[in-house]
Amino acid sequence: MTHNFILGSSSRWRRDLFSKHFSSSISNGGERDLPGAFYLDPAIDEKDPAARGGALAEGGQPVPAERMAQCIARAKARALVANKKFENSAKSLKNELAEALGFPILLCLDQVVRFRGEVREKPATHEEARQFLTDCMSFPDDPIECVNGICIYGEPDGTDGDAGGGRFLTTFEISSVKFEGLTTTAIGGLIADGRCLSSAGGFVVEDMGDGVKAVLGSSVSTFEGIQGLPVNTVRRLSTLILPANGGGRITHALFDMDGLLLNTEEKYTVAHDIICDAHNVPRATWEVKEQITGRPAQKSSEIFLSLMPGLPLSVGEYLKKRDEIPQPLFAQSRFLPGAEQLLLKLHVRGVPVCLATSSSRKLMEVKTTLTKETFAKVFGDNRICGDEIAGKGKPEPEIFMRALELISQRGEEVSPRAVLVFEDSAAGVEAGLAAGYRVCMIPDSRLSSAYRGFAAIELPSLEWFDVEQFL
Questions:
Q1: What's the whole-model pTM score?
Q2: Which of 36, 355, 438, 467 has a CA 20 to 30 Å removed from the CA of 430?
């Protein structure tokens, strides 16, 4: 089934990007001018605390930019659903485009800018805009984070369009930018132009003036994200809500362990460093480590030694040292942020879960020394370890397919598209996708862009995964 987005935004920049990137689905692959019904104006009060996730977060702290942007995006979507604008637009387009309109999805976004830890929205005055831009000029090496809240809405069950009938899914994306050559003269031009008042942070990345160059602040940032419409993130999230993919509902969850639930990856780094130091070999770089993370012990060791030719060790010798050195550290492993809370929420809601780790059974038992009570409560015996699969480990899909078999009821037909895999490694993401499941990735912030952008959801930590919207 094809699907078409209806954009709920009054932003000219978002509408231009939307027309460029999302018109091809109704025009045989080419760009075209979209009918006006593809654009809706949410017209909400974005300053209303109710739309922003509250005036303050728990503990009296300001609402984080990631949460604020998502809440505002969802408030926009709810408004367009409640007042029937989305429903009426979908009907109008269906009549106008006949069979060209597939499954309609409402897309709403919001962006706030964060610079040096301070959240900056659209400046209220020219002076505020001038201060924002002057700060950016004063600290040119500090990235300006553009935090994009994304909300999609669809009615996979064919409901009637009321605010409770369909499903809302939200996530966020962060693209960052730096401005080279920003001067007081350029700032004065932006202020005089006036467009700075309509953009979060007071800047217009498309035209910052002569001599000013916009440079992406990270390898995973995009100019579309900086402009307020992160195209790839939107496309990946939208796959979850399609009727053929379970309509956004998750029925089973499969979890990796190292680097996702537990802080064990840093222990492996200690072992790598000790081994390299003992042989007077330069320590492994992150570029080496990202190629071995998530893979079975034998394969990761082979890759590691091939990339570290100075180490005079066989695979067996290296494995023995790699597992023995950090044993005392492994026993001190703890949950990473948000991991235990997510597991317990799924347990309370009765969602079947299984652990699928490349670690051996013996190492898994050591690593869960301090967390065994929660692991026992949530997973019980539903655990598959790397030394218990007959074929190849990740990135092959066998371990996840075995895990799903373990938690499926006899005779139960489980839709692969309703199964969500949680992973931190590129190899694990590849394995989950190869099994036909949906994937939520929690990558290390240093992971290269070549290994990212494939999971349906990508978040900095499990703290940000809103499980309730998928149940």
A1: 0.90
A2: 467
Specify burial of residue 47 (Cβ count, 10 A radius: 0-12, 13-18, 19+).
exposed
Q: H or E element: which one contains 432?
A: helix 426-434
Residue position matching structure tokens 């001190």 = 332
Q: Is 239 exposed, middle or buried (0-12, 13-18, 19+ CB in 10 A)?
A: middle
SS3 breakdown of the chain: % helix, strand, coil, rounded to 5? 45, 15, 40
Which H or E element spans position 176?
Answer: strand 167-180
Question: What residues are annotated to the active site?
Answer: 256, 258
**Coil, strand or helix at 101:** coil
Domains and CATH numbers, the chain: 3-245 (3.90.950.10), 249-471 (3.40.50.1000)
Identify which of 295, 349, 146 has the alpha carbon closest to the alpha carbon of residue 233. 146
Distances (CA, A) of 302 to 159, 270, 298, 305, 319: 53, 19, 6, 5, 10
Per DSSP, the residues of 216-270 read ESSTT--HHHHTT--HHHHHHHHGGGSGGGTTT---EEEE--BTTTBS-HHHHHH
| Residue 143 preceded by cis peptide, ω within 30 | no
Helix (H, G, I), strand (E, B) or coil at 158: coil
Query: How distant, in Å, are the alpha carbons of 130, 137, 140, 189, 214 from that of 180?
Result: 17, 8, 7, 16, 6
Whether the Cβ atoms of residue 108 and residue 77 lie closer than 8 Å to each other: yes
Residue that has been written with the tokens 């029937």 in this structure:
84
List CB contacts of 5: < 8 A, sequence separation 6 or more. 18, 22, 38, 104, 105, 106, 107, 234, 238
pLDDT tens, residue by residue, 416-468: 999 999 999 999 999 999 999 999 999 999 999 999 999 999 999 999 999 99
Look up residue 425 and give its DSSP letter. S
Question: Distance between CA 267 and CA 332 in Å, rounded?
Answer: 10
**45 three-class SS:** coil
Cα 175 to Cα 201: distance, rounded to the nearest angstrom: 13
Residue 133 has a CB neighbour count (10 Å cut-off) of: 24
**How far, in Å, CA of 107 to CA of 238, rounded?**
9
Per-residue pLDDT of 9-46, as tens digits, reads 988 888 888 888 886 444 333 334 455 557 888 988 88
